[in-house]
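G., the chain you wanted modeled:
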Amino acid sequence: MIRSIIIIILASLLQPYVVLFPMTGLSSACPDCWIIEQTFPSIVLYLILPLCVLYILTQLLKLKPILKSILLVAYFIPVSFIKLTVPIFKDRIAAWSTYNDNEIWDEAVLQATPTLVLLSLGFMLAIFYVNNKPKIKD
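Predicted structure as tokens:
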């Protein structure tokens, strides 16, 4: 269980870096801030805490490892995109240009999809692997 929680925390903390890797720029709100400084409260509130609660719930319900992984990723993808990727894109890319709201969403989806898919796939496989290991009996 602890290993799964660590995977959840790592995937959540890496999300802004990995997903926005091709489009990192200076923040318009705080040019000297790192991405983690801007996103840490959102990461904890929208990803780490809910994903940990969801994981514990799936443990209590004794769901199969593949179902646990799918449920966690089904939450992770849309929430991380809406609560992290789009706001950071607005602040670090769109603020320095002339994007309208529709273009912000279009560009954020277009640029973040490949890396978000890779991160989510790695997250899902790691959770599945950790939860699918046979238990060693003494």
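The CA atoms of residues 94 and 103 lie 9 Å apart.

Shout if anything looks off.
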